[in-house]
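Lecture 7 notes: from sequence to structure.
We start with the chain below.
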Amino acid sequence: MNFQEVTRDRILRTAGEKTSYTFVNLGEQGPSTPGGKFDYCSVADKGIDTVLEISVLEAGLVGTGEIYPDLQLFMSLQTRLIRAVDGEELYVAEVTYKGSMQCYSAWAEENGGRFREELITGCEKLSERTVELLFALPSTGVAVGIVDGDTISLLTADEKVSIKLYGIDCPKDAQAFGNKAIQFTSDMVYGKSVEVETVETDSSGRTVGLVTVDGVLLNEELVNAGLAWVYTRYCDRPICERWKALEQDARGAKRGLWSEPNPIPPWEFRRK
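Predicted structure tokens for the same chain:
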């Protein structure tokens, strides 16, 4: 199975269905290695202004154990948007997929039929997430679980996914106000239909995004209630400046965790 070709074709199809842009398959034109340089001036002369490079970095079964280990499909895809006329990199992201665990013998059943089905599923999921990231397309689903104040489980039309709230960090359940942050998030979204604007995918393949319910942004409400820090190391969108101001207001009013004399940020708590 040609991962590169299959994934490219699925991304083209998905992007064509979900966006208003026109896409052209450039075939084998592009760098020989991911992130390499390539002169796209020839396609710029044909009226193509932006090139999307798609590189499959890794694809295989991974797991632990010595004899008949449990294994899952892991795939990693890098995408880059390049301005054709001068080669400037406009966007780069890595998207990963982790499938379900199966024992070694199960993957080999029916001449590897289950494995081939999982490969197709992996390519489809990678394609959908890539397009959502590139074009900031919102996805919808029902919140069916609250992992902690800033992480929820979302049931979409065809899968259950973990969503990490972008730009903020809530106290963990072992910290003061950790359980209150969980309850606040549960009260806002549990069992409700929410909209997720994907910002990025983290190293674990988890979606990081902005979660809106009934027109209210959960990320922002947690900060305003004094139940989350603005994670300044990773919060770099314009909206982060508003959140920083809301955090200062919550500090001044001693709302939530700011009523504590010396609240410990979760990233420091985790290190300890």
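Points to note: The chain has a mean pLDDT of 88. The helical segments are 3-18, 41-44, 104-135, 178-189, 218-224, 239-253, 266-271.
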